[in-house]
């Protein structure tokens, strides 16, 4: 049965694919006798969903291939801390290479999926080779990093699978506001965090030049954040802490000119949190001098300035944009599967299998988790917590399948509450949606919960040891 | 006397300068009554010479201004370790901001010096502001970083001094071999180290793509180092360690294809070391499989390949270039002072004061140290050790001058020997030139000396604590 699948797919793909098979076989040559008995599991994406599957799946029973464009997992809750320099960048990433050569890993994009042939068309995400002509990048390369990625080497390859986990995540939403990709920073990846950190210090060094007027200085030190969700709020909080510690110490006269502004189109920030906790955060921010500009609409962004419907032109030194999720291009390219009308994510059944558009049948060999997926009967938020729990569910299922055991128990979400850091060593912790408990915490206790919750998460031992030394 | 100097210089400079004076006065406003009694000391450069002067000088008695284009000190012996990922980048730098607001610091280049008027023409080294047009960069911006720097904001400023320390260092020597700046990496700055680290991993990820032939893989994994001095040798050693630890663990089949080549035009590597120690290093390298290609001449570099007189075309994935020093553009721009014929560095007397070209008189207010300077009666090597000792001498002198004490004792160099890491936890330690001792050490003992010598150096407490945790 397995053998038939294998040849069926190999025969249908191009000449290049046989070279692929040759190339991929070589690194695993030492265990080729075992490999022949293992089914091929391909994981697309190394975020909260994909990395957890990679981490947990039984690699002795599965022939695992990880396709990740970045090559690492971002521990996203620490990115805001990295962006202001509290944490080292290394603390916030885990390379997928940690699991090679036990698994095969390619730094590559998946451009399209053939669910019938069970093949993936892939493109290297490494820079073009000397002898290759660069193809056009999917997204334009922008000064702030944006959604751009390497053009790819121009030579694609085909990857087959027996089982497939789609965990490619989502892109940053811009609502088509002109200039956002070119002039704003997102905060989804450790490289974004690095660019933001560089830019913050650059703003102060620019403002420190003796040739500037005070108006020019205030413009450079105007820090704007668009999007009042947890990411925007936590970054505002971390930035506030930075301005009131290291920056005030080393640039005392400039620190007084700096200003943080948090924009949202909604009437409140932290819309997904319990109202009383969101109010606590707003009060805390106002006391700290952070301007909360709710009910504000950014209409256009240019270099160093944006146009706000309610304010007119607003100059900034740094603009961080975090207004939710946009569909991943791979998901957009898929036409054979059922999708959610609102988010355009892949619909799954309660076993997290994707569903064919014609006939509405689940594909037993393909699962979709994380921000690229939504269950048709249970709408869960697009959070790390949901992605992580779905991944753990898939791991259990895969390990049962490998042992030939039945596994049709549906996925159940266990809400563990939401946490957000609001600055000055204070956090809010919303467990009002959590199971069995009705707790809301704010202030120092919630901060301790926030830190300890993240510390006991996925981070490996190396990072668990390292993180506190940077505090 | 002081007041006269001050006004003499202020009156002779342009209108922009008064705005400068206004701007620089503001951050130090809180101590303006004290500041009026202090002489102005300007330090150009934050390397081994300049940073040590900044660190040691009595900031209560001197009104100190640091002009540094990077804004930080590079702990150069750790750069090779950073470039292969053994050390965090943060370990190898010390920001000059550590000393603000006690001192004034500008991230800026000095373009020219008027020794008569005692003024410096400076250009911000931060990126151009939104409303400014970028001027042409001094060096072209290259993919590998090279010698390029920010174009500057286009608006220069004038800085006056009572006393001046020129410690701008030197640039990387390319001997005008075409293509070096565009396609090779230098290893003089932590940003170079970061680019090299990124490139090493990129080479392995590129070579790991399933579409490549083994010839293409071997080309990508051919690592070339041009220059057999301590920097080239230490980088080769660190790279060898990396290939035989993490790389072998995670890319086992690719690690076997990787190759390290060390080129030099001279018949031996480590020409400045004792012959028996250099031979020990060569033997150690040969045993490790590092190709030592002495008596080889690189004639041209292109993207991914170079042309060697003795070999023809040589493909590489990474080329690190470290063939000594070239004059700093600021030093080249100075026409009024005596210079060394061979190196074009500034000549100084044994008090380290620069010497006028006409008349050969020392300028009592200007000192030159580090790689940009050479003493006319005592030719010392252009090393960190010499720069550091000269800086300590200047600090003592400045602190005496501030107290009105006489200080004409000439500089004396105390040779503490040379250390170089040669891989596999082994180092060589040459004290054959050192005072009173005739010791040469090689192997493990020398390695311990190498590490401990650097640990007890300039690194601040924070870094002393942090460095071992990364080991």
UniProtKB/TrEMBL annotation, chains A, B:
InterPro entries: FAD/NAD-bd_sf, FAD/NAD-binding_dom, NDH-2, NDH2-like_C. Keywords: FAD, Flavoprotein, NAD, Oxidoreductase. The keyword Lipid biosynthesis does not apply. The keyword NAD applies. GO terms for cellular component: mitochondrion. Gene3D superfamilies: 3.50.50.100. Residues 40-391 form the FAD/NAD(P)-binding domain. It comes from the Eukaryota. Residues 416-469 form the External alternative NADH-ubiquinone oxidoreductase-like C-terminal domain. GO terms for molecular function: NADH dehydrogenase activity. Belongs to the NADH dehydrogenase family. This is Uncharacterized protein.
